[in-house]
Amino acid sequence: MKNQNTLWESLGRLYPHVRPIIPRLVLGLLCALGASMMALAIPQVLRVLINDALAEGGSARTVWVASGVVLLLGVLEATFVALRRQFVITPATTVETNMRTSFYRHLQNLTIEFHDRWGSGQLLSRAMSDLNLMRRWMAFGLIMLVVTSLTVVMGVVIMFFTSWVLALIFVAAAVPLMIYGYRFRTSYSRVSRKSQDQAGDLATTVEESVHGIRVLKAFGRSREALEDFEEQAEELRRTEIHKARSLATFSMIVTLLPELALGASLVVGVTLAASGDVTIGALVAFFATAAAVAGPVEFIGPLLAMTFTAKTAIDRHYEVMESENTITDPEQPIHLDAPKGEVVFDAVHFRYPDAQDDAGDVLDGIDLRLRAGETMALVGVTGCGKSTLLQLVPRLYDLTGGSITIDGVDLRSLTLTELRSLVAVAFEDTTLFSTSVRDNVLMGSDATGAEAERILAEALDVAQAQFAHDLPDGVDTLIGEEGLSLSGGQRQRIALARAIAARPTVLVLDDPLSALDVATEERVEEGLRAMLRSTTTLIVAHRPSTVALADHVALMRDGRIADVGTHSELLARSDHYRYVIASLDDEEIAQLGRTAVTGQTVPDDEEALA
Amino acid sequence: MSRTTTTPGGAPRDRRPRRTPKAQETPAESGSTSAGVLNEDDVLLDRAQSKAVRSRSFRLLGSLIRPNRRQFIWTVLLVVVSQAARVAGPAIIAFGIDRALPALIDGDPLMLWVAGGTYLLAAVLAAVLTAGYVRATAQLSQSMLLDLRVRVFRHTQRLSLEFHEKYTSGRIISRQTSDLEALRELLDSGISSLASGAIFMLFTAATIFALDWRTGFLILAAAVPMFFLARWYQKHSQIAYRESRVVSAKLIVHFIETMTGIRAVKAFRRETVNAERYDELAEDYRTVTVRSINLNGVFQPGLVLIGNVTVAVVLVFGGFRVLGGSLEVGALLALLLYSKRFFQPVDQMAMFYNSFQSAAAALEKVSGLLEEVPTVRPPKNPVSLPDPRGDIDFHDVQFRYGNGPVVLPTLDLSIRAGQTVALVGQTGAGKSTLAKLIARFYDVSEGRLTLDGVDLRELAPADLRRAVVMVTQEAFLFSGSVADNIAVGKPEAGREEIIAAARAVGAEEFILELPEGFDTDVNKRGGRVSAGQRQLISFARAFLADPAVLILDEATSSLDIPSERLVQEGLQKLLGNRTALIIAHRLSTVAIADRVLVVHDGRVVEDGTPADLIGGTGRFATLHAAWKDSLV
């Protein structure tokens, strides 16, 4: 985050977006000018018409002509007003929408590491209100600023022609105004930045309070949450008031200085007129022009404030747009024609980018080889880096040292699309999207039609998620945040079905059965076993029952692979393994001689309950 | 002094995010009255509905203004007086030229000094008052916003889980962000433009009437077409703004869902599909935005046109009277100039009306949310329970979600204080429902559920929450440090207590290994903390809360065995004298239970000590055997 861009730098960044619509903006500007001129002209025309035509004792015809002229000018004014919008609105909203969608796309591409740092409310405020502000500035603020400034300049020029002495007095007031304007810019930009940031953080707090509603309710902490929120909202209020004060002072000066100058002009002007240095006519004309300029001069205050706010909005937008996506497709991707699925971790190191310098690597030299089709269980104490290791495979994070290869090809040499179709994952905490069961499950699959149906049915079957068929609309039932809420176990099975339906070459499962009861787990495993025979699988396991799925077990400790072997080998030779995986009492350990296969059928009608 | 620039309407603001139309939301349910958020995605409402939501929206606005009446009046007053100070300027100049100049020529400078001094005074006054009302407006608008923000937040916290399970976080966020933004715009610019415009028109009209009452009535006649134009605009913009809120809420919901589920989005290559969907929504949003702007783009020039036509009519009418000799030429000129000026603030009024329409549509949605009644209501006459023991009794309890099928058929159950009860049964058997009833996430549909003999529905909420704590499988972490997250269990806890709680559940070790120990920021969604670690943290929360009744709903599912072992040791200490209800698929927990309830189809089918049940031939015995085998 660079903090202080100059106003021009910031606004200049819009140029590429604005370039195609410049002609329409200019047309809009001209219309605005036209309307502004009409509004100025009508009183003058009236004066001329009446004084010259009517006063001379005109006829009915004169009255009609004069009225016709006035009517025409009036219609023109209204037309210009309408046209200005017509010219500007569509292109401006198009620019806004394009910026919004590219913002969204960019966010989707940015790394998980980026998203770890940024609250979604904060991002939302940039996607919605900042771009709104930007568009409004472009369609209204920018144009009016130009029109207003031109009006003022023209007015001042006329004033100079009328009386240069008086005009000089008027212009002298502009000097302190500009100096103050510069200070105002700095302070107002700062406070408007603060308020926009705080508004975004407030949105993040709202988001968390809703996503964490169960915890807040369970502990009866709604009041504390409310107090925190109130404090934050109060802070935002204070910032807004501060901002308003800054604007109020500026508006005061903008109103005051020209008026003071006019007061001085009045005294000087009358004195000059008395001595005959200025004609009375010129004096009247001077003040008439000054009156016409006063409105625009005052209007400059709010317009400048709007410009500074837009600048902040643009800065905030580009702050995200310029965050670099570090996980990208290779320049010359390698394509795997017939992937087999041999996965090799070679001296893999990983540390989070914001880790402290003295902290060790989370993954500290992982060496592990999975033959094609092999199922490898990953076992280790909570926090030893298992989940981190899994996330490296689909490149949710990039490793910081060593390499991971699939069939001898480095992950980073594959396109992300190819890699992520080769690799499917099921996380421990499942994310379901607001769509149907079908779409959730088939998310990673490219199949269509009957083939898709078959894959869907099979995946639900293997994951023991047949309950989906009994939902109100079967597999078309909407689930996720906006739909039916499922229990933890149900969600986990849908997520597992999703990973299975992707038909990956490499399957990565992060303790995928934790929320299942023993009987269901047993059936899932039976189904999975058949499927896993042809799929390379890395599965985080906390229980012996899950380990039973695997051909081999890799024991992780302190960011390294401490040992690899079969379950019984490791049981026999590793104290740490026994510590991690073995159950609570000796009696149970004594039973370990038995094999893991349990054939009991447990009565089960849970499907009916779903 | 009046604005010379005529095209203020500009791009009407569009803020409007919100509303997500959910197709499945069964609009039929409660007849035609649109209660709460039901139907909130409908754009075309029938007359009665439209009226109902409108007046609901106005009531909300009124209730926001009421506590700030003084500030409101003060703001309007400042606007009016500052307007007057400005109008004085040209009059003083006229005085200066007409009177002070001749006087000066006659050698008397006094008048000039008076004119100059008065002008400066008026200028200072106008400037100070302008600053004053800019501040006053912000103060008024910000305190109303704060009030509304807090109301919405408090209310959403109050609403039952049942509501939250349907109404997405994205919608609540859009209520709290873009809806409020619409109101803010109205407040920020609306009051001053309305007040100053109205005052200006009033003064001008008075002047015109004083000059010539016939022309005055002519000008008033312009109100008729303006009224019809405003009616037309109101009707259409109401729909447009409603729609834009619905569409923008969709946009926000989609956005939030993507960002909170970004891992899955990436892992399953949803980016393209998502982006296409977002493009569509953003384009819809653009379309409705353009529509509402264009409505204003007809309305505002329309008003300008009516004003200008009126001026022409005044000219025709007055011109013939001049010809007829009944009107002075000078008077006609003055009348025409005043007529033209009369219509100048019409722009501002159009802008005001535009933001008013936009805010009203937003408040329709916000008021709908505020109208939602929590299904789990706080008691009217709360019974307090300062020293809960933890006796839980189900008397003929039945439960169903809303009007849905019965999930829990009649249940009688009594859990004595201090008992540790394991709830066993398959996924979906109704264990969690039972737990949620005890935590009063839901209310029983029939019968009574009591804690120490007090019906939960009558128990003071604060006492209930202190007495009963539930730890769920989804261990949500709030942004902040690990210590902050543990302190959710007991906000007033000191560092010592927090550390002790973490130690008791075996979480201290991993926490100390984090970069900054207890002060480590857990990041969004606990990105850096594994699922098991999150469970440990939420366990520590429960430990710290120290309730009389502790419910653990699959709270240890993601723990590895060593952690679970530690937790269980802690648990045994913790459970000493309190009631505990443990739901776990891993039957290891059952070992520490005094009593096991096997739940099936919402019924308790087995009830006994672990030893008894294991020794028997029922479901539990079978489950236990299967579990034993799974340990290998």
Describe the overall structure.
Chain B: Residues 392-626 form the ABC transporter domain. Chain B: Pfam families: ABC_membrane, ABC_tran. Chain B: This is ABC transporter ATP-binding protein. Chain B: Belongs to the ABC transporter superfamily. Lipid exporter (TC 3.A.1.106) family. Chain B: One of its GO terms (cellular component) is plasma membrane. The complex is a heterodimer of chains A (610) and B (632). With 610 residues, chain A is α/β, with parallel strands linked by helices. Among the domains of chain A are: 88-321, ABC transporter transmembrane region fold; 343-429 and 505-609, Rossmann fold (3-Layer(aba) Sandwich). Chain A is 62% helix and 9% strand. Chain A contains 22 helices and ten strands. Chain A has a six-stranded mixed sheet, with helices on both faces. Chain A is elongated, with a radius of gyration of 36 Å. Chain B is of the alpha/beta class and 632 residues long. Chain B folds into two domains: 49-371, ABC transporter transmembrane region fold; 392-630, P-loop containing nucleotide triphosphate hydrolases (Rossmann fold), CATH 3.40.50.300. In chain B, strands 6-7-8-3-9-10 form a six-stranded mixed sheet, sandwiched between helices. In chain B, strands 2-1-4-5 form a four-stranded antiparallel sheet, with helices on one face. The radius of gyration of chain B is 35 Å and the shape is elongated. The N and C termini of chain B lie far apart (90 Å). The model of chain B is unreliable at 1-34 (pLDDT under 50). Classes of the chains: A alpha/beta (610), B alpha/beta (632). Chains A and B meet through helix 3, helix 4, helix 5, helix 6 and helix 8 of A and helix 2, helix 3, helix 5, helix 7 and helix 8 of B.
